[in-house]
Design brief:
Length: 88
C-alpha cells in the first residue's frame, strides 16, 4: 500500500513538471506564430496588444485543454497495466 502511495505522489510530481514544460513550450510557440503573423501581414497598431489578445484566445482553445492529457493518459495506462497484471 505504501508503494502505491509513493508511486502516486512521485508520479503526480513528475506529471506536473511535464505539464508545466509542455504548457510553457506550447504558449511560446503560439506567441512566436502570432508575432510572425503580425510581421508578415504588415499590420498597423499595437502589436503587443494584438499578440496578447491572440494568447487570450489560445488560453480558451481546445489545444490548451488537450495538454491536460499529460495527466490522463499515463494514469489510464498504469491503471490498465495494474488491472491486466492482477486479473489476467
Amino acid at each position: 500500500m505504501f508503494a502505491l502511495l509513493r508511486l502516486s505522489v512521485v508520479g503526480f510530481i513528475v506529471l506536473t513538471i511535464i505539464y508545466v514544460c509542455v504548457s510553457l513550450y506550447s504558449r511560446s510557440v503560439r506567441r512566436d506564430k502570432l508575432e510572425a503573423e503580425w510581421a508578415e501581414n504588415d499590420m498597423v497598431g499595437d502589436g503587443a496588444a494584438w499578440v496578447e489578445k491572440g494568447l487570450k484566445e489560445y488560453d480558451a482553445s481546445l489545444r490548451r485543454k488537450l495538454i491536460l492529457a499529460v495527466y490522463v493518459v499515463p494514469i489510464l495506462c498504469v491503471g490498465a497495466i495494474i488491472y491486466v497484471i492482477n486479473f489476467y
